[in-house]
Here is the input.
Amino acid sequence: MRRRQFLLRSAAVSSLIAAPVSLRAAYAPASTAWRTFELTTTVTLERDGQAAQAWIPVPAHADPLWTIPGDTAWTGNADTVEQVMAEDGSHGFIHATWEASDAPAVLEVTSEVRTRDRHSDLPGNAVLSDEERARATAPTDLLPLNGIVLDTANEITDGAGDDLDRAMRIYNWVVDETERNPETRGCGLGDIASMLHTGDLTGKCADLNALFVGLARAAGLPARDLYGIRVAPSAFGYKALGAGSADVTKAQHCRAEVFIEGQGWVAADPADVRKVVLQEDDGTLSLADAKVQDVREALFGAAEGNWIAYGTAHDVALPGSDNGRVPFLMYPQAEIGGERRDELEPNTFSYTITTRELEA
Here is the structure.
């Protein structure tokens, strides 16, 4: 899609804001109404007389166009609790510690956040500082920008006319060449070099959207992952694109965005296109179906406000831990007796996440 087509679609989306529901496209996030959600994470650690600690992600990423974190509060029997917020807004969490005891370690963290739909006709006048640009174009442990990643990015973007063209080529390549793998644990890991070397371009959101981000960075475009969680159903009836209940313990989702000069941060979510293919209509859809094409068209430049962003950070250091960094902070983390627990294994780490929408 060239710039003129992109701007024409932006104008079309804008006109949908005031259109009757019956005239709206099958998938076209465009609401300007703000929504407020309360997110509650409850952690219970059975520890058999050992010391324990936990790190609970909270909304930290702020963008006045579509997401504004609110207050966070906590209760429980922890011996120490502190809220840690990165100065650059890339991540935030509650860090709690418990001294050795037989009693279960319990912590409840509640956060509020305001959010709304993103769409390409919202003002895009963001300016990147040198520090922000450096951070959004840097390699990470799982997103190297040389070797096969750089070669692939160059091949995809060869002959592109401008940054928007390059970003759209990468987005469409990821949609066309990858598949969602329902057997991938959690949201995936995002080891993009391994994906490209093996040719196994399958996974879930933290894999497929990381591939978009890594390729964009290798092509010289500022890009970043947005780690968060779905908190409400899709307004357009797509079961794959929303939370199915107030229990969102397993509703984590990673989105992405790319910075386009003159436009600002532009939403991108090729992974959700692939999720629609796999999960909607009992898995009978293909990329050629209109239901998928609507989502594919929208998810470069738009995103529904039924999702909360935690942060953008990769390779996150957990204070008090000797077990190394985590690739990203989208799940609660815990250690018992100095042993890192598997955040995806309820037998060793019990937590629930619930949500409710508050009245405006």
